[in-house]
Amino acid sequence: MSPAPGDTAIAFAGAVLTGGRSSRMGRDKATLAIDGVPMAGRVAEALRRAGAERVLAVGGDQAALEALGLTWVADLHPGEGPLGGILTAFAAARGHDLVAILATDLPDLDASVVQALVGGVGGHDVAVAGGQQAEPLCGVWRVATCEPVLTSAFAQGERAVRRAMAALDRVVVPVPTQHLRNVNHPDDLGR
Q: Domain holding 91: CATH number?
């Protein structure tokens, strides 16, 4: 889904949330290979192919992620869940109005999903992928409007992304469910 000739591509940065504990998997999901490619690498490649100007890995094993060719940034809120990772991505992607933020455990994402989200955000605060349900860890966020709302919610003790983003102008972009397979348990690898 490349821009048509004469169209201007929408500038955005990308971030892969790689700092989770992976407790249900029993090992680091970011470096777990699917078809020979670590999940973080698969998600980062989807961002690159979609046109992300920068791709960051937020949290997790710095050495392992840098060995995959990713630019690693320390999670500013380690152990505080993905909402803290989103806030870290906003801070690390200064200079970009839009940031595509994706969970590392969505190995079947491809560039078309990211491009649909970038194209779908329009004048909204955030565009999230939707299959059977909205997936807030597969979205494109407008930093200027989202950061203050999420920062306030976080400061008030909120850690659930869905609840923190309730005050934002959201749009759900339909995405084929096969692109949103979430790999949390060893059993999910065979699906």
A: 3.90.550.10
